[in-house]
Amino acid sequence: MPTVAPLDLDGHCIAAVFLDGVPHFALADGTIHRLDHGHQWTQVHDGLLCASVEHSGKTLLTGGEDGKVCRSGGSTEVEVLHEAPRKWITSVAAGPQGVLAFGSGRTAFARLANGTIKPFEHPRSVEGLAFAPKGLRFGVARYNGVTLHFPGTEGKPVEMEWAGAHTGVTFSPNGDFLVTTMQENALHGWKLSDGRHMRMTGYPTKVKSFSWSNKGRWLASSGAPAAIVWPFQGKDGPMGKPPLELGTRGNTMVTAVAFHPSEEILAIGYADGMVLAVRVADQKEILLKREGKGPISTMNWDKDERRLAFGTETGDCGVIDIAG
Fold it and tell me: Does the residue 309 lie in any domain?
C-alpha cells in the first residue's frame, strides 16, 4: 500500500518537486520548504508566482512579485539571476544547456548560458513560456496565439495564430506539436510541420494542469470531473479522435495531473485533495492519497519513479511513496 508523509504548510503551493531526490515545496508567499533530514525552509521571494525545474533536476527556477528570477538548490543558498524592481515575473521556463526564459508584462526574456539577457517584446502580455525539446527555441503564449523565438540566432519569430487568450503552452516530447491552455474552457494545438489546428474543447472549467506521457503518446489535462487524456500517437495528433476519461469520481473536479516518468500511468489530483493513479491501458485505479484540506495544485514524480510530491491550494503538502 502507498504511504503518505505529510507536510502541513500555510498557503498555496505553486510547485511540489524533487531536486536531487529531495522534496521541495514552493509557496505563493515566496518561501521554499524542503524535507531534508527534517523540515527546513528559505525565504526566496516577496511573493512567488511561477516555478520550473531545470533540466538537471537539481535546481528550481522561480519568479516573483518582487521582480526577481532566482535559482534554488538543495542548500539554503539562493542565486538571483535577474532583478527588475516594480516588475512582476509571471512566467519562467527552463531550457537546454543552462538557458532559461522568463516573462514580465509584454516582454519575454531569454537568459543565455553566459548570462546574456535578450528581451523579446510583444503587443500583449506574456502569459506562458515553454522550451521545445529539440534546439534552442521557446514559445510564448499570448493573446491570439503563440510566438516562437530562437534566442540563439537573429532569425525572425514564428507566429502561430488562433483567436482568444492563450494562458499556457507546452511542446510534445517529440517536438511535433504545440498545445496551449486558454482563458476559455479549452486547449488549442498546432501541428508544427504544417500549422494545422487542433481544437480540444468540452471542458466545464479552465484547464490549469497538463502532462505528457513519457513518449508523448498521450496528453493528460485537468478541468473536468475526470482526467481528459488526448491521443497523440498518429501524425495528426487528436484530430478526429475522442479523448480518454480517466479517474471519474462523480462531480469532483480534477485539478492536477502528472504522468509517471516511464510508464503510461497517470497520477490524478482532485479538488477534495484525493490522489489516484490510473493505468492508461486498462484504466485500473489505485488510491494514493485520501481526501485532504484543499484542491491538489501540483504534483511531480521523483527520478526513482516511486515517490510523488504533491501540494495543495491550502498548504496540505507531502510525499507519497507508492512502494509503501
Answer: yes
Cβ proximity of 243 and 230 under 8 Å: yes
Is residue 254 a contact partner of residue 247, using CB atoms and an 8 Å limit? yes
Residue for cell digits 543552462? 98
Residue 137 domain flag: no
Which residues constitute the domain of residue 29?
1-43+208-324
pLDDT digits (tens, 9 = 90+) for 71-102: 998 666 899 999 988 899 999 999 998 899 99
Q: How far apart are CA 99 and CA 118, in angstroms?
A: 11
Q: What confidence tens digit (pLDDT) does each residue in 256-287 have?
A: 999 999 999 999 999 999 999 999 999 999 99
CA 314 to each of CA 165, 232, 243, 303: distance values in angstroms, whole numbers, following the listed order: 28, 34, 31, 26
274 close to 294: Cβ distance less than 8 angstroms: no
What Cα–Cα distance (Å) separates residue 324 from each residue in 1, 4, 288, 289, 320? 5, 8, 10, 12, 8
Position 86 in a domain: no
The DSSP string of 30-89 is SEEEEESSSEEEEE--SSEEEEEE-TTSS-EEEEETTSEEEEE-SSS-EEEEEE-TT---
Report the C-alpha gap between 85 and 67 in whole angstroms: 5
Distance between CA atoms of 310 and 235, rounded to whole angstroms? 34
Report how far residue 131's alpha carbon sits from residue 125's, in angstroms, rounded to the nearest whole number.
Answer: 18
Global pTM reads 0.96
Number of domains observed in the structure of the chain: 1
- Domain CATH code at residue 22: 2.130.10.10
Q: Is residue 186 part of a domain?
A: no
Q: Which of 189, 249, 193 is nearest to 219 (CA)?
A: 189
Going by C-beta distance under 8 Å and a sequence separation of 6 or more, which residues neighbour residue 277?
260, 265, 266, 267, 268, 285, 286, 288, 322
